[in-house]
Fold:
Amino acid sequence: MKSIAGLWIDHRKALIVVATDKGEETRLIVSKVEKQLRRSGDSPLKGSYESQTVPADDSRERKRSGDLGIFYEAVVASIRNSDSVLILGPGEAKVELKKRLTRDKLGDHIVQVEAADKMTDRQIAAKIRKYFQ
Structure:
């Protein structure tokens, strides 16, 4: 039984379409990564106490990296048993996922990594079906 998978990914979510001989299944994985790292509390009124109220940049970056790691692990777990994987997405997440798959010895399952803007769930599923036909 051959299994194919295609996914659209950015740092906020991944929509995964897995097709086997038994049918097609769609999964949505949402990450807990902050949209954009910002220093909260940047105000002239806060004065010299700002450093005590705002977390350090390196601790926020470590949290973001940890959240991304958890997100990518969930995505990898969803496509681990697939024979062929098509990766779509608008930003760096698709390249980061490719590196993660290569590190986990699943890089040879990747058939293509392709840039794609925002798409609806149906458009993603249709593009993946068309690619593998």
Observations:
- The chain is about 40% helix and 25% strand.
